[in-house]
Fold these 2 entries.
Entry 1:
Amino acid sequence: MNEKIHKSGFAALIGRPNAGKSTLLNQILGTKLIAVTPRPQTTRNRIFGIYDREDTQIVFQDTPGLLEPKDALHQFMTREAERALKDADVAVWLIDSIKGVTARERGIATNVLSNLSIPLFAAFNKIDKINPDQIPALEKELEGFQFDPPPTKIFISALLGHGVGNLLRQVTECLQEGPKFYPPDQLSDRTQRFFVEEIVREKAFLQLRQELPYSLAVRVEEMKERENGLTAIRAVLFVERETQKRIVLGKKGAAIKHIGIEARKEIETMLDGKVFLELWVKVSERWRKKEDRLREFGYTETT
Ligand code: GDP
Ligand code: MG
């Protein structure tokens, strides 16, 4: 008789900001767990997303996009991505097929991925946006890099789900026999509080666009379920300067009101219940430059 074995392992999602890492993870988990935005870098820490089947468990790590370090926050994010790779059994490198293999991909390939001792998948994403004729040219762009071992090329649309099943099958094949690391019904290692913060940050980015780049931190100060089933949440949006505070508030508070409405709708979907969301804007000077402040906002290295 054929005893069924159980396979498990960690898979790191690597790629430039906006390649579609969070979209892929949401597609794999079948839920909108992780903030996805047209603006890069909503994701500041690694997030574990857990794909679970009877005979498989893959713990995916959605890492912050790899950038050249410019300040404390960027350095922190690059370190996080490198750390994710160190812990991983498999690496999935997402390449935006619309942009192709650019200087940034070349940087990632030579600095981060060239000497991996684990299987590497080069997943060309967003194929729904390209002409199939372009595929051979895209594949060619990967030639000339010294990979050891060489990557397995795969074509997907994280958004539509095309090729994602195939990717999962191939990742599973690389994994070794092992136990479940997390309970089968657990989707993520993160708390609901964390996802509330992600959602508020995403809505703020969408509302404010160019006006507020990285200098925004969101912290949930209170989250309580009341007896009538309503969840009351109080969150603070921290900005660096008074001028930014005025931007976040908007004319007569219009911007923050809109952020609140949009965020509440999505939090209600996530929690599957009514939500009362209260948002505050506070100035906390130059938090981005200070590692201790990073830590205070929860960007710890011990999670
Ligand atoms: P991340 O920074 O790598 O996590 O990228 P996101 O997952 O946040 O995605 C960035 C943007 O690309 C979002 O607007 C997504 O909707 C979009 N996107 C991601 N995957 C696909 C895809 O397969 N096709 C298309 N057309 N858009 C995608
Ligand atoms: Mg992301």
Entry 2:
Amino acid sequence: MSNVLVLNGPNLGRLGSREPEIYGSADWKTLVDRVLAEASALGIQAEVRQTNDEAELIGWIYEAVDQHKDVVLNPAAFTHYSYALRDAAVQVPKAGLRLIEVHLSNPHSREEFRHTSVISGIATGVIAGFGVDSYLLALRQLAR
Ligand code: DQA
């Protein structure tokens, strides 16, 4: 059974109440439930985590590499500036594992600072703009 860590950066725990016109009305628990249901339907062992702490997120990336798990990563605002996260995340593809960057919104249709991702260049693939479905699409790709 394929093993995946679904990792989420800052403010994503506020889903549902945070800018619902951009991120949708589904709350964090709904996201977790939908991701776990999809993973189970696909025969994937998935764990979903969220942190506001860059160091903790980097530690989880190391864990994925050391335990040979693929990663679905929504780096949230870290997407746009965290070279530390990029330096950690590049170890995922270098270990022969897959790293899929996901976003609920489409950052390219938003403010200019969101048009830069320091993660996309080292990701296996990027899925953005489909709300919670972005995560489900990533899991489907990992299951192929
Ligand atoms: C986000 C997009 C980022 O620009 C933003 O900082 C987020 C969420 C998304 O899922 O659409 O926090 O990653």
